[in-house]
């Protein structure tokens, strides 16, 4: 995202970056099928995309993205919840680098390259 090699400056930039750059940084790899179809390796994650978790406690589970939090660099996926000691459930924040995009929300034609000029 930036040219410096100093870890502190790089970390600071991730928190102070403009919103349009933070949203772009929320990218995840595409599945092999999608990657071949779109001829790209990754795309930013958006609400209503279907993702599969490939690392961490919830590895192997998949679901629809219900919320994207660019401020904290996290996404929230339906049915990925934890229980509190009082029994209430809350959504778990997942880092987009730990997921693979399995299917895209195709309501925005400009998002998928090739279809924007057709």
Summarize the structure.
By secondary structure, the protein is an alpha+beta fold.
Tell me the span between the first and last alpha carbons: 31 Å
The whole-number mean of residue pLDDT values reads: 90
The count of helical stretches stands at: 3
Record the strand order, biggest sheet. 2-1-7-3-4-5-6
Structural class by SSE content: alpha+beta
Approximate shape: globular
How large, in whole angstroms, is the Cα Rg?
Answer: 16 Å
- Strand portion, in percent? 25-35%
Range of helix content: 10-25%
Report low-confidence residues grouped into runs of 5 or more.
none
Largest sheet: 7 strands, mixed
Number of strands: 7
SSE order, as H and E?
HHEHEEEEEE
What does this structure look like?
The protein has helices at residues 7-16, 19-25, 32-38, and strands at residues 27-30, 42-44, 50-53, 62-69, 74-83, 89-94, 99-103. The radius of gyration is 16 Å and the shape is globular. The protein is 20% helix and 34% strand. The model has no long low-confidence stretch (mean pLDDT 90). The protein has three helices and seven strands. It is of the alpha+beta class.
């Amino acid at each position: 995202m930036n040219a410096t090699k100093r870890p502190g400056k790089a970390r600071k930039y991730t928190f102070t970056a403009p919103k349009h750059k933070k949203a772009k940084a929320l990218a995840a790899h595409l599945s092999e099928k999608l990657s071949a179809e779109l001829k790209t390796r990754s795309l930013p994650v958006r609400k209503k995309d279907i993702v599969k978790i490939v690392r961490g406690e919830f590895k192997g589970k998949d679901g629809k993205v219900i919320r994207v939090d660019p401020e904290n660099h996290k996404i929230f996926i339906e049915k990925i919840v934890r229980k509190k000691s009082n029994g209430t459930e809350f959504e778990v924040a997942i880092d987009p680098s730990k997921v693979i995009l399995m299917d895209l929300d195709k309501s925005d034609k400009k998002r998928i390259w090739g279809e924007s000029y057709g």
